[in-house]
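From the shared-data thread, chain only:
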Amino acid sequence: MPFLPPPTSAAWLHQDARSGFEVVHLRSVDDGHLLRGTTAAVEDGQAWVVGYEIRLDPGWRTRSAQVTGRSDTGLRTRLLEADGEGRWRIDGEPAPLLDGCLDVDLESSAMTNALPVHRLALPVGAATHAPAAYVRALDLDVERLEQEYTRISDRDGRQRYEYSAPAFDFSCRLVYDEAGLVLAYPGIAVRAG
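Structure, as tokens:
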């Protein structure tokens, strides 16, 4: 079942791992999709705000991500650029550690877990490895994050995936709405609007 066009905005209440709120505005543009969002949160006693602008091609591959973060340690910015074939630059410098990644995944965002699901369009029962360029919330450090997505049977018209990130010894079941945005991300966030 293909996804419906995304809404013009969405929001998540972050819980358990952090206390916070995320809002994103989505729009289709001539060369793909544009996501502009902000998360404000408190995690481990530290307050931070992360703003992002992510440009995706028509196949939902990340082409760029401008990320700005503010915390007690100051203001930071990071620009990630991708060629859509798995090669990246971070702040203008080649980033071979990200070779093969087609998605950006922001630690601060529930929205970015929609990117591989849209891009992959997995049939029920299929599983895939989907490494991502992972941007940390507090310091905007970038690393490679190995991830696995396995599509399981839909329920109530909603796609569901078993998700795992071995580096964090983390796994959960993600539930997506008809537009392919996360509704339930156990331990991280729930859709608020």
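The radius of gyration is 16 Å.
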